[in-house]
Amino acid sequence: MIWTMQKASYRAFHKALKLTAVVLPFPVPALLTGPGSVKTLAANIKARGIDNVLVVTDKVLMGLNLLDSMLKSLAENNIKYTIFDAVQPNPTIENVEAGRKVYKQKKCQALIGFGGGSPIDCAKAIGARIRNPYLSVRMMKGLFRVIIPIPPLFCVPTTAGTGSEATITAVITDAQSHEKFAINDIKLIPKIAVLDPELMVGLPKHITSTTGMDALTHAVEAFIGINGTKFTDENALAATKLIFENLEKAYKDGSDLGVRTNMAVASYYAGAAFTRAAVGYVHAIAHNMGGLYGVPHGLANAIILPYVLEFCRKEAQGKLAKLAIAGGIGKPGESEEALSIKFIDKVKAMNKAMDIPTTIKELKRSDIPLIAKRVMKESHPLYPVPRIMDRQECEELVKKLLP
After folding, report:
1. Of the candidates 131, 134, 126, 62, which has an alpha carbon nearest to the alpha carbon of residue 100?
2. Looking at the DSSP assignment, which residues form a beta bridge with residue 86?
3. Does 183 share its domain with 130?
4. Are strands 192-195 and 80-84 parallel, antiparallel or unpaired?
5. Is the pLDDT assigned to residue 22 strictly greater than 90?
6. Distances from the Cα of 103 to the Cαs of 116, 138, 205, 304, in angstroms?
7. Among 43, 185, 282, 301, which has the highest number of CB atoms less than 10 A from its own CB?
8. How far apart are CA 203 and CA 196, in angstroms?
9. Distance (Å, rounded) from C-alpha 161 to C-alpha 309?
10. Among 172, 200, 228, residue at a domain's last position
11. Strand 179-184, strand 142-143: pairing
């Protein structure tokens, strides 16, 4: 009886959240797209009267010299820049505070997040702390707790996966408790997003595959949840189609700029979808794999996605059928049940073709109760999932991920 009432309260929250998402004025980033588009960012920043920026990135990208063309164009446009490259794969509260300190010391006016989701998320959180010094990072956890808008933010994704360049979300890790949490606020959406496929050509195969499956997870969870709108559904379907058509090609031949462009666009579409329609249990479980064990987010999502889809297949089969048709793996007229099974099988086949495992080798059986507790806390009532799971069901699902 109590659980029935709890579920009813979650659904009431979901309805209110959907109404809020419909009426909220979600900003849409200006897009700079195509090969070499990163070189045009500086002129766009200069046109806004900005001449001193903090570039948030990581040491791997610095070592690959991937920022060179952008930094050169900043210098040519007389824009001073300071590089903060201490972002970890799962950015921590300490990373955010260190970046904030550099921003203030150098009297910067704006932020550039350059890299995968980690530098972009870190840049968002740095901006939130700059303008809201009396709010700790943890105090901004959850929905709409960033009071004052962040400084101008410009995002240059180097992977086609997180979609962070389109979203209201910054995911941060508490290094003390090993917990990942999200800050969600429309004030975190960047002014400009740069989708330059040339920055993605040299990505290792395992990054291409896992970030691509991350984008697919965003599209799928946004679509099968109950809070989708015409806008989010169109973006999720378009993203799914592009990912099914291009991801394995990008995995096999990363030098194909057309394929890389399609994946970058797909990631952006998926980000635009989930930032309005939300995600689900795949993300909640994946956040724990990242927080507890440091498992890369895209890899965790890719592994977990089929298990969660099987858990909610009956409730979501109509929408999974539409995704199957959009992805070109089924035809109208086939039964929804058959199409939904085809879709899940296709996800498994893609994982297998790209050497993504079916279990998480770091997972410890003794941690499963804690993981389930944290998943329930993150998911309820926030995520408008097609089927609500209880804690025991969550533990049973997570056990399937044991090596």
Report:
1. 126
2. 58
3. yes
4. unpaired
5. no
6. 20, 20, 34, 37
7. 301
8. 13
9. 19
10. 200
11. parallel
Which of the listed residues 182, 200, 218 is the one where a domain comes to its end? 200
Residue 27 is assigned to a structural domain of this protein? no
Q: Which residues contact 122 (CB under 8 A, 6 or more apart)?
A: 56, 87, 91, 95, 96, 99, 113, 170, 172
Do 47 and 76 sit in the same domain of this protein? yes
In degrees and rounded to multiples of 5, residue 167 shows phi and psi of -110, 170
Pair (183, 265) in one structural domain = no
List helix spans (H) across 47-139: 59-63, 68-76, 93-105, 117-131
Q: Which residue has the tokens 């890899």?
A: 299
Is there a single domain that holds both residue 177 and residue 242? no
Per DSSP, 186 falls in state: G
- Looking at the domain assignment, is residue 114 inside a domain? yes
Whether 2 shows a pLDDT value over 90: the answer reads no
pTM summary value = 0.95
Looking at the structure, tell me whether residues 358 and 320 fall in a common domain: yes
For β-strands 192-195 and 30-33, DSSP reports them as parallel
Q: What is the CATH number of the domain that holds 192?
A: 3.40.50.1970
Q: For residue range 132-172, list pLDDT tens digits in order.
A: 999 999 999 999 999 999 999 999 999 999 999 999 999 99
Considering the domain architecture, whether residues 191 and 209 belong to the same structural domain is answered as no
Structural domain of 47? 34-200
Q: Which pLDDT tens digit goes with each residue over 64-114? A: 999 999 999 999 999 999 999 999 998 999 999 999 999 999 999 999 999
Tally of structural domains, the chain: 2
Number of CB atoms found within 10 A of residue 193's CB: 27
Q: Do residues 195 and 264 touch, judged by C-beta distance below 8 A?
A: yes
